[in-house]
Amino acid sequence: MKLVELFKEKQVYSFEVFPPKRTAPIDSINKTLDGLKDLSPDFISVTYGAGGSENFEKTFHVAKAIKKCGIESLAHLSCIGLNKDEVDVLLEEYKSAGIENILALRGDLNPSVKLSKDFKYAQDLIEYIREKGDFDIAGACYPEGHPEAESFGEDLKNLKSKVDAGVSHLISQLFFDNEDFYYFLEKCRNMGIDVPIEAGIMPVVNKKQIERMVSLCRARLPKKFLRIMDKYEDKPEAMRDTGIAYAVDQIVDLLTQGIDGIHLYTMNQPEVASKIHRSIATLLS
Known about the structure:
It is a single chain. By secondary structure, this protein is α/β, with parallel strands linked by helices. The protein is built from 10 helices and 8 strands. An 8-stranded parallel barrel has the order 1-2-3-4-5-6-7-8, surrounded by 4 helices. α2 (56-68) links the parallel β2 and β3.
């Protein structure tokens, strides 16, 4: 099923997982999926590392495992280290496995990765996938602007170009102040970006996690959130509980405001996703 159809019916509720690390067996993802499937997400996305086609096998395995659970999968595809021939092979693999939803990304810049001559930006990959097959293509968006963009307005123009290239729905980077998302959403609609936009929410359960995430995406931390970190950073259980509660508050507010959907960054922790689900289950349509 093409995921864009879901947004016509309901507020979508979905998860993100990542493939097992190199030192872990690939089948270790099954424990994570077993813990998530009973929460009845509308789909589960699976990440893809930057660095070339060697990342594909794990992403492909997890995407197929998600399908075996009876859940639609959304496979990330980062083009920064790929050429057209490699993308052709990967798309054919997805097509043969019945995976028809792809999140098209540029991928993070990495000095160890040889940049692609065929794909400089996510838009290039989106246009290529659109020409090559009948896939539903999702894109990423940044409520506070992409860290590399010259300005917020410039980033919105780039986002409009991605949508015009063939993106049917968007998933946002994590954020911690819903007002930032609402402002972004308003500007998108004014710009003519009218595709569904899911809000990306990450429950923060330890200080190290948030420091890493903020260093990567530069998300703004509201005073309320900073007070939580200051008070509970040396109390792991309390930090975990308050981080989950903060995410629940965000989600309740977003759903109440009628946004298109919630994409929960699970960090492969089904027990955290389960706690959140119990708090919001009655709000999901």
